[in-house]
Write a structure and sequence with these properties.
- The protein is an alpha/beta fold.
- It has 12 helices and 10 strands.
- It is globular.
- About 5% of the residues have low confidence.
């Protein structure tokens, strides 16, 4: 009987998922990327409704994950141990989840790659997956090392379809500088540029963002015909929206794409 008992326990152990970690729910598209990259599939109790949208970096993984709305009823019904968020939900929901004994992990709005590293470490630790977090950071660091100095300080302007640019204190600026580009916009944070500014003082080179969403911002300054004529020949790269909507490790993929586009010297 003792042998049978040990054998039964062994078989039960085989049936349990290895290193599944705590059950986790993500409340928004950015949190989805972290959860899909770091958690075991068996530990994912739910992701946001946008996990498989076209602008989701890990949309193929998101297709197979259960979806739930970021409401107290939906989240508590999924019985998670941990909830990860960037912007999803509100302060009342976060407080209610914590009263239910659920750990809430906040992804910060990182403005540089060290901030991204902190986000990865925070989420991977909460999900009991520090090794996977270390792997993401190592991959990000390799991309940054391979990108360093590629453009030798040449200037470029970041421009979205809506006509926004990004200056100092943004992750966009960090992505450009990591590849050796200097930022042609000398301002702080994000700013909206007018069509007149873009036509009268055009930069030599552009880094475009969010132009892959062809049905959005159709009247934005970046889509104006006169601006598009200038960007047609001066664009270094056009970053997809999936790369830009979340302060995550794949920002370094953006720097690497800039480096690959640099002229050979």
């Amino acid at each position: 009987m003792k042998v049978f008992g040990w054998a039964a326990l062994f078989l039960v152990g085989l049936a349990l998922p290895a290193h599944a970690g705590p059950r986790v729910v993500s409340l928004d598209q950015c949190a989805d990327q972290y959860v899909l990259a770091l958690a075991d599939r068996s530990a994912i109790a739910g992701v946001s409704p946008r996990a498989d949208d076209a602008d989701s970096w890990l949309r193929s993984q998101g297709e197979a994950a259960p979806r739930l709305r970021p409401t107290l009823e939906a989240v508590t019904a999924a019985s998670p141990d941990v909830v990860v968020r960037y912007w999803g939900g509100d302060a009342r929901l976060m407080s209610a989840l914590e009263r239910h004994g659920i750990t809430v992990i906040q992804i910060d709005d990182a403005t540089d790659f060290e901030g991204v590293r902190r986000n990865i470490r925070r989420v991977s630790t909460a999900l009991h997956q520090p090794g996977r977090g270390a792997d993401l950071i190592a991959g990000m660091n390799r991309n940054l090392a391979q990108s360093r100095g590629s453009w030798n300080g040449e200037p470029a302007l970041y421009l979205t379809a809506a006509g926004w640019t990004a200056g100092r204190g943004t992750l966009i600026d960090a992505m450009m500088r990591a590849a050796g580009l200097s930022n042609a916009w000398d301002g702080q944070s994000f700013a909206s540029l007018s069509i007149e500014q873009l036509i009268l003082r055009p930069p030599r080179q552009y880094v475009l963002g969010f132009f892959d969403a062809v049905r959005s911002d159709r009247r934005g300054a970046g889509r104006h015909p006169s601006v598009r004529r200038r960007t047609r020949y001066g664009t270094v790269v056009s970053w997809p929206g999936a790369m830009l909507g979340c302060p995550a490790w794949f920002a370094a993929d953006g720097s690497r794409s800039l480096a690959r586009a640099a002229p050979r010297r």
